[in-house]
Structures are given as C-alpha cells and as structure tokens.
Design a protein that fits this description.
heterodimer, A: about 120 residues, mainly beta, 6-stranded mixed β-sheet, 4-stranded antiparallel β-sheet, about 50% strand, B: about 110 residues
Chain lengths: ~120, ~110
C-alpha cells in the first residue's frame, strides 16, 4: 500500500504568490515524522521542513510552512511569496516508528513551476 | 561545515560489471543511509548504517551491499549490474540511528548502465 501520496504531478504558481503542495500519508504508528524536500534539476535533495507527529504546532521555516492535519493524515507544504528559484521537484517523505530506523518513504513528487 | 559528499558524481558502466559508490557524512553524524532514485520516481530506501552496523535494509536484491567505516563514511557496492540499476544514488546523513529531524542528502551519484 502506498504510504505517501502526492496527488499533484505538476503545479504552476505566479511569482510572489503562495502555493500549497498536497501530501497525505498512511501509517498506524503513533510516532512518526514528516519531511519535505526540494530537488532541483541538479539532483540534490534539499531538506526544507520537518514535522513530528507529536508536535502540536505547525512547523515553519522561513517561507515554508507545513499544514499538519493529523486526523486527516495530511501534511501539506505551503510556500509563501514564490520565487523563480522555487521551481523544482518537491517530495514529501515519512519516517515511521523507531524500529524502522532512519528509513524514509517518499511520495512520487510534485513538479512546481514558478512563472514570472 | 561541509555537507554530505558523494563520489563519483557520474559513472557509466556496462551490464555485468561491478560498481562502488562512496559517501562521507556531515561531521558529527554517525548514520548513513542509501537511496536509489530512478528517473521520474521518488527515492527508494536501500540501506541504513549506524556505528558500522546495518540497521535497516530495503527491498533490494543481494547484489546490493554496503558497509560503514570507522570514520563513518560508507560505500555502496552493486554487483552484476543490470540496465535497471541506472539511477541517481543518494546518500543521507543523520546524527542518530533511529530518530531526529535531521536527514541531509548529498548531491548523489548518477549511474548509467549500458
């Protein structure tokens, strides 16, 4: 069963506008972590933001925020004030319980294109 | 501080050959994980090593093996290469073996099997 679902293969956003990238997850664990990564065409995976399952507040890192809705099992990434440099592939990933170590399960990704 | 480093950046091999990929984690990080990313897909977990011991293995054949050295650097070995092994191989570095919010990736090694 797919554990991370990113339903938007591609998204367009106008420069300086906000955009939301969707991510839903499936786990029966109580302890888990959710990550978002950016992958430009160069290939490097750039860590953006992390949300722990017990964190009561939504994580924020600069222009990035994670809209965490635990009951709905969603962890959407919100990018505010989009910039041309935000054009890239974005991956949502989950790490489950401690017995799985540091294994991350990734979604299929969403390609974001920022228009000027 | 230097980030995660990987070598080589690109590699071309032919079917049946063997390949060794290398990764050096961020200073102070003791955990190294390997991922395979086939074009158009998300990365797939291959191995995790912590303190030189294997702590996790993904659904990959025995042709894939890895090890971690006393300085926490790591090697990924793939034997009897197949065309389907062509992918970007990513190494991720973390402080701990089981938890923490830090999973930083290197630039990857792009392997092409002809």
């Amino acid at each position: 069963a797919q554990k991370i679902t990113q339903t938007q293969p591609g998204m367009f956003v106008q420069e300086k506008e906000a955009v939301t990238l969707d991510c839903t997850y499936d786990t029966s664990d109580q302890s888990y972590g959710l990550f978002w990564y950016k992958q430009p065409s160069s290939g490097e995976m750039i860590f953006l933001i992390y949300q722990g399952s017990y964190d009561e507040q939504n994580a924020t890192e600069g222009r990035y925020s994670l809209n965490f809705q635990k009951a709905r099992k969603s962890a959407n990434l919100v990018i505010s004030a989009s910039q041309l440099g935000d054009s890239a592939m974005y991956f949502c990933a989950m790490r489950e319980g401690r017995e799985y170590g540091n294994k991350l399960v990734f979604g299929a990704g969403t390609i974001l294109r920022v228009k000027s | 501080d230097a980030g995660v480093t990987q070598s080589p950046t690109h590699l071309i091999k032919t079917r049946g050959q063997h390949v060794t990929l290398r990764c050096s984690p961020i200073s102070g990080h003791k955990s190294v994980s390997w991922y395979q990313q086939v074009l158009g897909q998300g990365p797939q977990f291959i191995f995790q090593y912590y303190e030189k011991e294997e702590r996790g293995r993904g659904n990959f054949p025995d042709r894939f093996s890895a090890r971690q050295f006393p300085n926490y650097s790591s090697e990924l070995n793939v034997n009897a290469l197949l065309l389907g092994d062509s992918a970007l191989y990513l190494c991720a570095s973390g402080k701990t073996s089981v938890w923490g919010n830090e999973q930083f990736f290197g630039p990857g090694t792009r392997l092409t099997v002809l």
